[in-house]
Amino acid sequence: MSEPVAFSDLARAAYCPRQLYYARREDRDPPPEHDRARDLAAQYDALAVAADAALATYDLAVEPPEFRSNLRASLDRHGRVADPAETAAYVRGKDAHGRVGKVHTGPLSVSIVTPGSPPEAGVWEPQSVRAVAAAKALAWREEQPVERAYVEYARHGVVRELSLTTRRKAAYRRALRAARALDGPPPRLHDDAKCGACEYREECGAKTRTLRSLLSSGD
User: Fold this and answer.
1) Would you say 84 and 102 are in contact if contact means Cβ atoms under 8 Å apart?
2) In this predicted model, which residue has the larger pLDDT, 207 or 7?
3) How far apart are CA 218 and CA 147, in angstroms?
4) Is 110 helix (H, G, I), strand (E, B) or coil?
5) Which residues pair with 100 in a beta bridge?
6) Secondary structure of 138-207 in the HEC alphabet?
7) I want to staple 17 with a disulfide (CB 3.0 to 4.6 A). Which of 47, 50, 132, 186 is the partner?
8) pLDDT tens per residue, range 174-203
9) pLDDT exceeds 50 at position 209
10) 5 versus 184: which is more confidently predicted?
């Protein structure tokens, strides 16, 4: 039986298999904003009523009034994320393993906490894949189904709930296959949005087009 793959590797494989290749070679530590996001996620109840001056001392991605408004709306919809059964729990499943932000009971579900920015709606695919991986690993540990997960964009005060749909599970399986099959650098994506935001773009050598070049290409 194959060894379980790290949740972080699956998220990278979903974003770009070539990024995963470079990440495995360098084995960098997570940037400090990950710890700061987890710190925020552990204090939602207090932060939801904190004054602007107090909120300004935290590493927020938006201004204090917007953060507080976002967080209050999130807690109105998903209040259970403020009172988890477990935090920073290591979970090992049949196919994937890693640390999850929170474990919730009644019903059983899982949160992943990210320092990144949320999309307009839903969650980004790498975070969806990571959430599915975490939910499946938790289901394996607890020997019961886990059908829902949360992605907490803690620095924005935004919490998104997702169900483990057929489409999300298929994306997870694709990422799992890509991570396990990785043996050498995969082809470059040549995706301006993804490559421009990737921390390995210099090592990769991917050339991204500027806004000026994109506009002029229509002449």
Assistant:
1) yes
2) 7
3) 46
4) strand
5) 89
6) HHHHHCCCCCEEEEEECCCCEEEEEECCHHHHHHHHHHHHHHHHCCCCCCCCCCHHHHHHCCCHHHHCCC
7) 186
8) 999 999 988 877 777 766 677 877 788 777
9) no
10) 5
SS3 state at 83: coil
CATH 3.90.320 applies to domain 5-187? yes
CA dihedral 158, 98, 146, 82 (to 10 degrees): -40
Calpha distance 11→118 (Å, rounded): 15
Cα dihedral value 111, 113, 114, 119, nearest 10: 40
Q: Where are the domains of the chain?
A: 5-187, 190-219
Q: Which H helix or E strand runs over 38?
A: helix 33-41
The count of other CB atoms within 10 Å of the CB of residue 199 is 13
Contact at 8 Å (CB) between 96 and 176? yes
